[in-house]
Design brief:
By secondary structure, the protein is an alpha/beta fold. It has a single domain (3-162), classed as Uracil-DNA glycosylase-like domain (Uracil-DNA Glycosylase, subunit E). The chain is 34% helix and 22% strand. The protein contains six helices and seven strands. The strands form two sheets. It has a four-stranded parallel sheet with strand order 3-2-6-7. It has a three-stranded antiparallel sheet with strand order 1-4-5, with helices on one face. Helix 2 (45-53) crosses helix 6 (150-157). The longest helix has 15 residues, at 117-131. The chain starts with a strand and ends in a 6-residue tail after the last helix.
Length: 163
């Protein structure tokens, strides 16, 4: 598979009530096709959040957006553009960060969480010096993170309720 230059194709989910920001790394191929976050059916992100808040998994984009906003959660990715092979975080090169400080100026975000190591590394390297808010890394919900069960992910991610 060839590494290709990609630009993040869709905007963040955020409103004036967002207190928590969750950052992924860069959208997978499935998410880029769906034009929304965590579009791969095997990614456990939506199941994890549903488990954390004890609610059904939202079934469509508008339901997912409403779910996030109802819990004061903003959702975006650390990377605005990069070269990437398929959906592999390990293949990401030439990463350019998203304009997260601008997003932080638009909402009362108090806590930032990163879905996996790649997102966290990019945030801490490029964004933290500008934003001044450390991000807490959480275990990736990607199907590539088979070491963690759904229950283990829900337990680890429960910290966002305190956000």
């Amino acid at each position: 598979m060839e590494r290709k230059a990609q630009t993040h194709p869709f905007p963040p989910v955020c409103d004036g009530n967002s207190r928590i920001l969750i950052l992924g790394s860069f959208p997978s191929e499935a998410s880029r096709r769906a034009m929304f976050f965590y579009g791969h059916p095997r990614n456990r992100f939506w199941k994890v959040l549903s488990g954390v808040f004890g609610e059904p998994v939202p079934s469509d984009t508008e339901g997912k957006r409403a779910f996030l906003l109802s819990h004061g959660i903003a959702l975006w990715d650390s990377i605005a553009s990069c070269t990437i092979e398929g959906s592999s975080d390990a293949s990401i090169r030439e990463a350019v960060p998203n304009k997260i400080p601008e997003l932080l100026s638009e909402a009362p975000i108090k806590r930032i969480f990163c879905n996996g190591r790649t997102s966290h590394a990019c945030y801490e390297k490029y964004v933290f010096p500008l934003a001044g808010i450390h991000a807490l890394p959480l275990p990736s919900t990607s199907p590539a993170n088979a070491a963690k069960s759904l229950d283990e992910l829900i337990e680890a991610w429960s910290v966002i309720r305190e956000g």
